[in-house]
Every structure is written in structure tokens, then in C-alpha cells.
Specification:
The protein has 358 residues and is α/β, with parallel strands linked by helices. It contains 13 helices and ten strands. The protein folds into two domains: 220 residues, Rossmann fold (3-Layer(aba) Sandwich); 101 residues, Rossmann fold. A six-stranded mixed sheet has the order 1-2-10-7-8-9, with helices on both faces. α6 runs parallel beside α8. The longest helix has 20 residues.
Length: 358
């Protein structure tokens, strides 16, 4: 191993040591329900999202496999948050960074990528991202980080303070320390793979529910056991949903999947933001909607326990999209009916909406 590689790994480890563990918030529900909701707040990472963990792991994976050297250009295909975090680490290591992004990516994320020294290369269609990133990496003799392939193997799912281990450590003194359910939406599929593998490895009774969005191939791929499923339209909820079933998506660790309408994701995002007193992103809304669905199901059956999901990133990145009424109208999204549903569930009502589940 070269001196440069040794120094690079040490820099990444030092960043991890400086980053305190993210908070686990208790979301208040009536005590008589005996149901506790928890939100693991990944938005407090230095680069503002869950993808900070993934970016560090992907770059470490490239370093220890000898694919990243001191003159290597890092290349990625990313809708935004992963690229923001990778640009941060690339700058830390003094490496050039290029990411392929859809033209529809919000400007706030583009600005952050460029703030950290990254370069954005735009494509018109989400399905063109990976082939274009491969071409760019080949042309510059760089390293394609390829989050959609390597997310599930770059993270140590056995422990090493991965997100699952962190949650269980923080839950130790709670009334129901072993959650009934963990809920996670799928972008690469890497986080759901880490959660599901850890649950099985530690033999926890916790089950994993993956919430997918409209215009995503994951749900149909899981339901039909077809890894070749495709979806022609792009997801409107950034960071989750994919036009194909990505290699990092591991269906065997999932106990249940549910498809959440895009307007419902925005609605749950709005409700949660009001309850927290700060804005969260759209994928967090997807998670929270599924969490409320499961909580209502548990309450209806008289079952007590805890449920956990993630705050994936801050809503400040989406002021011109999800929080903009004109943008919602343009996209044909009306969150109001779903907001009423979520508020009713949190007030003790039933979940009066059939959802596609598998």
C-alpha cells in the first residue's frame, strides 16, 4: 500500500471520528397506544444527508481495492445527495470529481456539488446516467464509484457502527428496544440491504419494510421476483426510485414492500416538517408515510412496539420543488387529501387508503 493510500484512509477515518453519531428522535404519540415512532436523523451529517455514510464507504472500498490512487479522477452517477457527499470527500483527498446527473436535478444540489469542487455532467434521461458515467471514467482513466452496484457491498453490514448497529445501540434504553419494524425507501438499495442483513445476522425479531415510490422498478421487481423489471418514467421523489432494479437492491432481506404515491410522500413530508418545526426532504416523507401506515395497522390489531425510519436529508434542498406550490401544480401533485389522512392517523384514526403491497 502506498503512503498516499495510507494517508487517504486515515483522513477518511478521522472524518468519521469527528462526526458524532446522528440523533434518534422520538416522535410523540399518545402513550396509551403503546406504540413509539423513532426518526434517525441523517440530515445532520457534514454533507447533510444519509449519503455521507455511503460516500465514505464507496471511496474506502475503492482505496482498499487499489482502484483509487493519488492521480485518480472519481466519477459517479447520482441525482444529487450521493454526489454532494462524494465531492466533499474527493476534495478532502485532493482528487478530481465528476458526477453524471439528470437535468431535472434541483439547483440547490448542483450548487452544493460545485461548492465542494465537483463537476456536473448532465443527461436528459435517468437511464442514461450509468452508461455515461462508465464512458467518462473510461475516457479519463478514472474510477467509477458506481453507487448502484457497490452500495450493498461497500458497507460493513455486520457492524462497524453502520446505521443499523447505531440504531440498536441508541434504542437500548427505550420501552421497546427491539423495533417491530424498520422502514426504508430504496434509491441504490444499499441501506435496505445493510438494515436487512444486520437484522438477520443479529437474529432480531425486527422486520424490514421497504417503501417504494411511483415510477420505480423496485416494487414490481420485488413483487414478481424479476430483476429485469423496468420503469419508463422517472421518479419525482429525488434520491429514491429507479428505472431499473439496481444491483445493490437485495430483495431477500426484505419482509414487506409498499408503494407510496408521490403526492402522499409530499403530504407526509409536510406533516412531519410541521411537527418537527423544520423542513425534511421528499424521501423522508415516503418513509414517514409508510411508518404511519404500519403504526395504524399495529394500533388496529392492538399490538404494541416501536417503529424506526430515517430522516434522509433536509428540506432546504427542495424549496423550489416540493415546497413550491407552482412546481406541485405543474407536476399534477395535490398533497392535501393525503395530509388530512396522515393527520387523522396521528390523531388515532384508521388508515383509510388501500396501498399496493407485496
Amino acid at each position: 500500500m502506498s503512503d498516499w493510500t495510507s494517508t487517504a484512509i486515515a483522513l477518511l477515518e478521522a472524518d468519521a471520528n469527528r462526526s458524532a453519531d446522528t440523533h434518534l428522535h422520538l416522535f410523540p404519540l399518545p402513550p396509551e397506544w403503546g406504540i413509539d415512532l423513532y426518526l434517525k436523523d441523517e440530515s445532520v451529517h457534514p454533507t447533510g444527508s444519509l449519503k455521507h455514510r455511503l460516500a465514505r464507504s464507496l471511496i474506502l472500498y475503492g482505496l482498499v481495492n487499489g482502484r483509487i490512487r493519488e492521480d485518480t479522477t472519481l466519477v459517479e452517477s447520482s441525482s444529487g445527495s450521493t454526489a454532494v457527499s462524494e465531492a466533499y470527500f474527493a476534495r478532502m483527498l485532493g482528487l478530481p470529481f465528476i458526477t453524471v446527473v439528470p437535468r431535472s436535478t434541483v439547483q440547490e444540489k448542483i450548487d452544493l456539488i460545485e461548492f465542494y469542487g465537483g463537476t456536473c455532467h448532465f443527461v436528459d434521461r435517468a437511464e442514461d446516467m450509468s452508461p455515461e458515467a462508465q464512458r467518462l471514467a473510461s475516457d479519463c482513466t478514472g474510477h467509477y464509484l458506481d453507487q448502484f452496484t457497490f452500495a450493498e457491498r461497500a458497507t460493513d453490514w455486520r457492524g462497524n457502527n453502520n446505521i443499523a448497529e447505531s440504531i440498536f445501540r441508541q434504542m437500548e434504553r427505550e420501552p421497546h428496544p427491539v423495533p417491530a419494524w424498520m422502514v426504508m425507501s430504496a434509491g441504490t438499495g444499499g441501506t435496505s440491504a445493510t438494515l436487512g442483513r444486520y437484522l438477520r445476522y443479529k437474529r432480531h425479531a425486527t422486520r424490514l419494510c421497504v417503501a417504494d415510490v411511483e415510477h420505480s422498478a423496485f416494487f414490481d421487481g420485488y413483487r414478481t421476483a424479476d430483476a429485469e423489471c423496468r420503469c419508463e418514467r422517472a421518479s419525482q421523489i429525488e434520491g429514491v426510485g429507479r428505472p431499473r432494479v439496481e444491483p445493490s437492491f437485495v430483495p431477500g432481506v426484505i419482509d414487506r414492500m409498499v408503494r407510496v404515491p408521490d403526492a402522499a410522500s409530499i403530504a407526509a413530508m409536510n406533516v412531519l416538517s410541521r411537527r418537527l418545526g423544520r423542513r425534511v426532504g421528499g424521501s423522508t416523507g415516503t418513509n414517514f408515510f409508510a411508518l404511519c401506515w404500519l403504526a395504524a395497522e399495529m394500533k388496529a390489531s392492538g399490538r404494541q412496539g416501536s417503529l424506526v425510519t430515517l430522516i434522509c436529508d433536509s428540506g432546504e434542498r427542495y424549496l423550489k420543488t416540493y415546497y413550491d406550490p407552482a412546481w406541485l401544480a405543474e407536476k399534477g401533485l395535490d398533497p392535501a387529501p393525503y395530509e388530512s389522512l396522515v393527520e387523522a392517523v396521528l390523531a388515532g384514526g384508521s388508515f383509510e387508503l388501500p396501498l399496493e403491497e407485496a
